[in-house]
Amino acid sequence: MKAGRIEHIKNSPLGMIPADWDIMSIGNSLNEIYRYPTYFNIKYVESGVPEIRGELIKEDGTIEENDKAYRYISKETANRFPRVHLEPNDFVMSVRGTMGKIAIVPERLRGAVITANLIRMKFVKSFIEPKWIRHYLISEFFQEALDLATSATTIKTIQVPQLCAINFIRPPINEQRRIAEILDAIDEAIQKTEALISKLKAIKQGLLHDLLTRGLDEAGKLRDPKDHPEQFKDSPLGKIPKEW
């Protein structure tokens, strides 16, 4: 490390960090954190208020978009649990079983509710950028801290006080936003690349079938059994090139 840059960093309980960053607990960064005390005898309906459960939370910190994957409860049932009516930029986290699955709530799920195995968190927006904290919460840094704070039981679970006691490194809000922009851009590039790979795999699969059943003519083009039936013959597996 260059001596001229030492003044820009400082020591902290979590190691060396930039001088203008600080250490904060999850509890001190929240306006609200809540989990159902009870959630039973729920009657489901065909349409109504969507219910978010752990299976709908994706690894990238988002929530399933397919409406058919949801269960729904009536507004009357939802009103029995007013403190878990979700708002955009709230966070939901699984706290039992498959613990630590975390997602940010989008606008389309405003008013949705959560099951008893999830917890609702609302961060203080004046010093926590939701897009940034999403990346932190799904990172291995937080997941390792969460694992250490977990009750040592057969079924993994964490209580609210344990969760609130976890410390994390907090950059200034403007830097959080810049970091989130960079990470979001990378995520977008990954999604586009994965979509392209899926498309190429589908193209390859179709081409593979044609190449393995029709082959190439002398010009390097796929043989066409309709335009050139004379190039094919019958076989126990169907039409194949004559020389095969």
From TrEMBL:
Annotated transmembrane regions: none
One biological process term in Gene Ontology: DNA restriction-modification system
Organism the protein comes from: Candidatus Desulfatibia profunda
Family the entry assigns: Belongs to the type-I restriction system S methylase family.
Annotated protein name in UniProt: Restriction endonuclease subunit S
PANTHER family named among the record's database cross-references: TYPE I RESTRICTION ENZYME MJAVIII SPECIFICITY SUBUNIT, TYPE-1 RESTRICTION ENZYME ECOKI SPECIFICITY PROTEIN
SUPFAM superfamilies given in the database record: DNA methylase specificity domain
Keywords annotated in UniProt: DNA-binding, Endonuclease, Hydrolase, Nuclease, Restriction system
Compositional bias per record (Basic and acidic residues), positions renumbered to this chain: 220-233
Ranges for domain Type I restriction modification DNA specificity: 60-201
